[in-house]
């Protein structure tokens, strides 16, 4: 059974969702539920910190796309921070790196 730890914080740019562990078929519903409780205002940025993510499967990718859709529905942005080389490769292959804002660190994502 996979485990994921998540925390939500407030930053000057908007909400910050920190994920640690495995984002997969088992844990994705927990992240989706957390996303439902995050309120976004227009022009805010939902930042997802992936620095402690150890694994991400197709359901995890779908969850990140759902986060993007939530942000766009609120006239906000989604920013992914600290994406691993392996996950970045997958995003490049899928063409997602052209659709998502990706930053090397949370600080960079907050500072725009």
UniProtKB/TrEMBL annotation:
GO-annotated molecular function: anti-sigma factor antagonist activity
A Pfam short name: STAS
Stretches assigned to the STAS domain: 4-112
PANTHER family, A to Z: ANTI-SIGMA FACTOR ANTAGONIST TM_1081-RELATED, ANTI-SIGMA FACTOR ANTAGONIST TM_1081-RELATED-RELATED
Family membership: Belongs to the anti-sigma-factor antagonist family.
Database matches in NCBIfam families: ant_ant_sig
Name listed for the protein in its UniProt record: Anti-sigma factor antagonist
Naturally occurring in which organism (per UniProt): Herbidospora galbida
Species classification: Bacteria, Bacillati, Actinomycetota, Actinomycetes, Streptosporangiales
């Amino acid at each position: 059974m996979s485990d994921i730890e998540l925390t939500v914080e407030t930053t000057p740019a908007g909400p910050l969702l920190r994920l640690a562990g495995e984002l997969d078929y088992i844990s994705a519903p927990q992240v989706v539920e957390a996303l439902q409780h995050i309120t976004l205002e227009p022009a805010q940025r939902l930042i997802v910190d992936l620095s402690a993510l150890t694994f991400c499967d197709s359901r995890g990718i779908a969850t990140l796309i759902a986060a993007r859709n939530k942000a766009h529905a609120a006239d906000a942005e989604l920013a992914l921070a600290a994406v691993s080389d392996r996950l970045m490769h997958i995003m490049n292959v899928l063409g997602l790196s052209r659709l998502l804002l990706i930053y090397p660190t949370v600080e960079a994502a907050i500072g725009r």
